[in-house]
Each structure stands twice: as structure tokens, then as C-alpha cells.
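Reopening closed ticket. The problem is back. First fold of the pair:
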Amino acid sequence: MLRRRFLAAAAAATLFAGLTACGDDAGDDSGGEQTVTFWHSMAGANGEAVNHLVEEFNKAHAGKIKVEATFQGKYNDSLTKLKASVQSKQTPNLVQVFEIGTQLMVDTKATVAFADLAGSAGIDAASVEPGIAKYYTVGGKLQALPFNASAPVLFYNKTAFKDAGIDPEKPPTTIGELAEAARKLKVVDGGKTTRYGAVASIDGWLVEQMLAAGGVQYCNQDNGRSGRTTAVNWDTPELRGIVNTWAGLVKDGTLLNVGRNNTDASAAFQAGRAAILPFTSANLRDIMKGSKFEVGVANYIRPDNTTASGVFNGGAAVWTMAGHPKAQQAAAAEFLKYLASADAQGYWAAQTGYIPIVKAAADTKAFKDTLATYPDFAKPGAELSAAAATPASSGCLMGVMPQARDKMNDIVESVILGKTSADQAITTAQTAMAEAIATYNKSVGQ
């Protein structure tokens, strides 16, 4: 019956709506070396940093614990493989899942809450930064260990600001201020735009964060924090303002539209083709190193006519899958303890640009050395710490968040391309989401 529930739920959502507990506590529970399987989605330099952490852990626990880290592709690819692993009763011990998969993972009932592991493993769950932990806290429990935490920030070309007569120490705080600055920053030479005022990829995450920054809830039931989400909260003047302003900037040639390609947006900014870039802090190191001008890093913007509330973290967390031998689970918890340590987090943040999830990491040599070179590395963490403890700045919890993000992309894209009005696009998407949410909730017995 449990597997049938999983398969029914899988048909309801883009990836899967629910998993089911698989396996049991049978298996090697001896005192020999325990093997811990860890699935992750970190590639390139980030993947190398993960491998280094795993190697260091394995060296320190030789003969007792061996972590086998395996790259499973992008987050969506990893979720698809997780579905298959449940069906075959061969789940990993640990799996990295992006933040919008949180409600979905809780609904699987196939995980062990990090808070339940922490005490026996000697992990101080309270040491996890509250501004990061709040996203993954469901039912009063921290469900997974935040690992690669990021925040939305505004990158801007300080040199261009000075040339345009804009105070580089006073970056935009709202989308309206961004539009005003971008129009001043745009440079046209001989009828050709040589520098756009801004560049942005069509990414629903950017919209989610902008709404949160202005205290606007993305979905109902206090962003899914006080009850099961039943609808998105998109028919608002704030969202219409964001979409219309974005489309207007593209239409008048002020904002460079690169479609849904985040890499192209970052590349255009680093090349000096655009002076402002709303983006993730996860690429802070690359952007600072790759730009030949003075880069400014500021807190993220919010909708017009709103009061600053605060953003929530992006990135992913490491989840513990249930149904494995107790000794193996204890070994997995030991690895989580290491990942949450100051040394591991200091190294991870220094190598990648992600935010340390524990305060003590700021005192490590690795992170201090990085701050000496890139002082702005401290800003994303400070931004999350300063966010208000409200539902809006905690992020929306619902099982079909991956679908919601795609629908938000559709809204922005259709208005930018002139296919429909903001009102029409939002109404259509909100109706589609109501159906998707209802189907998902029914599939998980809610």
C-alpha cells in the first residue's frame, strides 16, 4: 500500500508528490566499518569541495565509517533517481535536496528529522543559524541539515554607478528604484546599446525572494507554516508591479533579457554588458573574481510600496532517509555532525561562496582569509540573520513548489514577450496551481 501511495503521488506532481518509507532496520548492524551513501548535486568546484570534505571525514574515521559520495546530477535529476531508489528499496543514507523540495520530503514519511538525530549524535541543532534553519523547520522540528545556503543579493557595477552620477553606496532597495537607476546606467553609442542598465534571468526564485523581501506571502496558510497550503497568493498588486516593471524595462531596452539562463545573466554582468544583476550569493566568489570593475553587493530588492521584511535562504539541505540499520544511521549522523562543524563550514563557505550555517565558522582561518580578500562574503549571511521572523520571510511550504516556480517563470516570460497581460498570466497560472495543489494534497492524504 505504501508503494502504491508513492506511485500515485508521483503522477500528481512534476517530479513526485510523495515517497514512502522503504526497507527496514535489517542489514549490517555490526561493529565493523559502516558505509554511508551520500547523494549530492554539486558539480564543478563545488563538487570538488564536497569530495574534499568527504575525504577528510573518511581519513579521520578510517576503519569505522566510510562515506561514499555520488554526484546525481541537478536537483531535479536527483529527485527522479530518489523516486527510483524508493521503488527498488535501495535508498541512499543521505541525500541533498533543494529548498523547494522541503514539504515534498516531509510528505514522503521516509525520512528521519535532523532534530531527532541531533541529540544522540551530539549535534547542537541550536547552533544552526536561525535565519537559515527556519526554512527547513516543519512541525516545530528542523527536518534536515542545511548545507549549501545562499541568499538573493543585488550585484552592481560601482564604477558604472559613479560614471552615471549615482551614489555607489546607495544601491536600489525596491524594483522601482532599480528601474530608475537602470535607465540612468544604460549607455547607447551610435544607436547601439553598449551597456544595459540591468540584466536578469527569468527565474521564479528571484520573484519569490522579492515578494518575501517586501513581506508578501507567496502562498496561503501563513506560507504553509500554520497549515497545509491550498492556494498560491499571486493575485496581488506587488506581483503585478514586479512583472510589469520587468517587462517595461525589457521593452524599452533597459534590461537585457537572457531568457531562463542564469549563466548568461552572470556572464553579461561580469563582462560589463549590464550594470545591475539580481542573483544568488552562491556565485559571489566567481562574480567578484570574474569582473574587471569594482563590484558592489547589496541586500535584495523588494516590491514598491512595501516595508522591508527579509529574504529566506536558497540552496539545499541534506536529508536522512529512514529504513536503514541503526549502526549505519548513527554513522550517517556522525557525518552530518562533521558537515555542521565550524571547520567544515568554514572551508565549504570559503571554497564556494555559500553561507556558513553555523556562527563559529566565521572564526575559522579559512573563512577569515576569504573575508580578508572578499569582505562582501559576510553580507549574504548578515542579510539572512537580519530577516524578520515572519511567514513571508520563511518561504512557502508546499509539495508542488517546483511546479510553482515553473509557472512563475511562465508568467514573467509571457508578459515580457508580449503574449499576454500580467493580469491574464497571473490568473491563468494561479488557476493551474490551485488544481495542482489540490491533486497533490489529495495524493498524500490531505
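Second fold of the pair, where the issue appears:
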Amino acid sequence: MSASKTKKPRSVQSYIDETPFWEDGTTVSDSLITGIQKRIWVLATAGKFFEGMVVFMTGVAIPLLHQDFGLTAAQKGIVGAAPLFGILIGATALGGLADTFGRKRMFIAEMILFVLFLLGVAFSPGYWTFVIFLFGVGTALGCDYPTAHVVISESIPSRVRGRLVLGAFAFQAVGALFGTVLGFFILKVYPEPDAWRWMYGSVLPLGVVIVFLRFFIPESAHWLVSQHRHDDACRALGKLLQRNPSYPTEIILKMPKKPHKHKKKKATYADLFSRKNRRATILAAIPWFLQDLGTYGIGIFTPTILATMIGAKSAEHNLAAIIHDDVLAAKGSAILDILLIVGIVCAVFLVDKIGRIRLQIFGFLGCAVGLLLAALSLHPDGSTNLFLIFVGFMLFNFMTNIGPNAMTYLIAGEVFPTKLRGKGAGFAASFAKIGAVTTAFLFPVLLNQIGTTNLLYILIGTSIIGAGVTAWFGIETKGINLESLEDPEPEDPTPPSKDNPVVEAMALKSET
């Protein structure tokens, strides 16, 4: 293969998107993904894997924590809500810092925090220290929401961005399944109330490895350009696109005009609500909020619901019976979680064909149907149709991941310009987690107060509203170049200096 050479300054994304062609001019259907781009993608999957594992494993741990710490219904709700409230805080408080300090620094910092707080969770001496450390774990995972998304989005070709971002997001479902399966096996091997400590502690070694590996990726060239760091951007882009044989052999980046100091204005969260960005903010935040009401409530408390249904058939309520019911519920929850993976796999294949908005609307409506089936499985006399509730929850898990659970995450990282991308995605994630925290805290309380059926009907309504908001404010980002979202700025007429060491080195490499 060969590719045309040009010495005209070009944008970062044009280098990333460049498609090689054969000598007769036939264009290759996809641009090649380099080894560094693959490594970035793999490392970005870790945050979503850990989130799914920790948050959903908490559902298995709650009955054990109840035995170990003597939890009330409200305290169970606090345990379920703690990591989600942490995500709410971390996505905005820490995720937005990626726009200030860089994508790579926050990518590393979030994982260090995750490991330290998880260590505290595993060795918590009491209920409140457990909750505080679990909140800290959520804060670190919250930072990962915008940071991991933009690390991927700003490193890969536009035409495969949707597939790769969702491919990384799929590891949330893999983590959810792995967490429930791990909880099941730990309970089988060690059927004691403090088995939850082994569940959380088992995650630590992998977290340490991920921290180490994240030091060896380049900074986002998009972000470096936005900071007017031309030489660093060329160096980072050269490392990102490192191939054998070497291509491109010369990088000359188009730079935005550097504003005068007195005109320089930093992007703030208030910019998300300007006339230009308001529609994107509504689309990114509100459907995600509505989706999280159902996904986290159902996801965390599926073992609790199933354990209640299983336990209702037995009069025994001793420790052995509770652990036995929790094991069966974990097994049932793991089976349901498989549908999360099936849904996200379908989303990966369809997102760049059907588009984000259509899939999100379709998914919301499918979630409503699944929840309706689950609601109809609960009879007025207190009996239940276990088959129907499984079918309803399986359909819900499949539709949420082919639609809103995946698409809201993807859209939030695509509809904002570079200078606001971290803040916009972080705000949307934080706003969404208000819904997650609300449902996680209130779910066990409302199960007692209004019953499972009424609670499911409420979630049916929020799913339908989510479909309507998506249709009204939809912005389709399928295949678009993210640089098209930038504010138009006059280009810097001064070409890059010939003394630039990166350009000089690449030119020398081209000559040899």
C-alpha cells in the first residue's frame, strides 16, 4: 500500500482518519489500527469492567453485609447507592479535570484512587467505613466515565469510533457478569458472612496492573492542540500512529490561532447551557438519567428480588438458609446478566449502521416492554410466575444494552467540542447518576412501601419518557468527525518551525 504525501498543515483527526490506498487508487475500506491504539482501547475497557463488577457484585454482597453488620432496609439502600453517588461526584469533580490537566494524567490518577479505596473496602472494620470507602471507589469510577471515553474517541478513526467506544463499554456488562459469578463461587467455597471481603479484595491485583500499564500511552494530540502545544502534539500523534513501515513520515499540524491573553477564556460548566450547547446537554443528560433509574435499580437488586422470591418458599431464615438463597439468587442474576453482554454485542454491530438515536429510542421502548412482562408476573395474591419475571428481566437487560445504557454513554462523549468534551460527558454522567443513586437508595425502601409491581410500573413510565426526549432532542453523531463540533477559529498563518525536532526527525526518517 502507499499513501499520498502532503506538506500542507493538517488536523489531528485527518491523520488518524487517513485511509491508505492501493497503487491503482483503490481505497482501503478501513484505516489501519496501530498497536498503540489497540493498547489504549484495552486499557480503557478496565474502568467499565471494574464498575460493572463492583456495582453489581454489591447486589450479591448486600445479604452478607446484612448478616455481618445488621443492616436495616435504609442502610441496604445506602450501600447500593454509595458507589453510584461516588460516580455522580467523580464524573464532574474529577472527570472535568481532563480538560485542564490532560486525558492521560486523569486516566492514571483515577485508577490509583480506585485501587486505594477498594483496598479500604476490603478491610473495612465497620458499616460506615465500608460505605465511605465504597463511595471513594465510585468517585474514581466516575472520573473514568468522561476520561476513558475521550481517550478512545480522540485516538481512533471516526468511522469505527462508535464500535470501539461501545466495545469498551461492553466490559461493564462483562464486569457485571464476572462480579456475580465471582460472588457465586466465593460463596460456594467460603459460605461465611464475611465472604464479601474476598469478593472486593479479589479485584485489587488486576487494578494494580492497569495502573502500571496506563503510564505507557501517549497524551491525546487533540487535547495538546487545544492547549497550543504543537511540538508535544506532533510527538504524541507520531507515537499513536507508529507503524512498520513508518507512516506518516512527516507530521505538520494545523493549529488554532492563539488568543491574546486578555481575550483568552477558559471553558466552564456554564458553557454547557449556552444556546449553542444546550440541546447537546439535554440529549446527553436527561435520557441517561431516566435510563439509570431502571438499569441500576433492576441491576443491583435483581439478586435481592430473586432471593426474596426464593426465600418466600422456605420458612427457614437462619444463616445457612440465607447464604443458600443468596447463592441461588447470584446464579439467577448471572444468567440474566448474560443478556447484558448479548445486547451490547448487538449494539457494537448496529451502532454505525442504524445510528445512535434510533437505537436509543428502540431500546427505551424495549425496556418498557420487558418491565411490563416482569410486572405482570407478580400476581395480586402474592404468588409469582418465575418464568415470566425471568423473561421480563432478560428482555430488559438485552434492550437496555442494545439501546439507552450503551447509547447514552456514547452520545455524551461525542456531542461536545474538545474544550468541553470532558466537562460535558462528566456532567451528563453525574446527572445520570442522580437517577442511579435515587433508585439504588429508594429501591429497597419502595419494595417494602409500594411493592414490586408498582415500582416496575413507574420504571415503565420513565422508559417511555426517555424515548420521547431522545426523539425530540436527537443529534445523530454516526460517523461524524469530532473536529466538526469545534468553534470556527482562524488558523494560525505561521507554519510550523523547521526547527521543530519532531517534524525534523520525521522528515529525516522519510529521507532515509
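Update: turned out to be a display glitch only; the data is intact. The CA atoms of residues 253 and 360 lie 36 Å apart. The chain has one domain: 35-223+288-478. Please close again.
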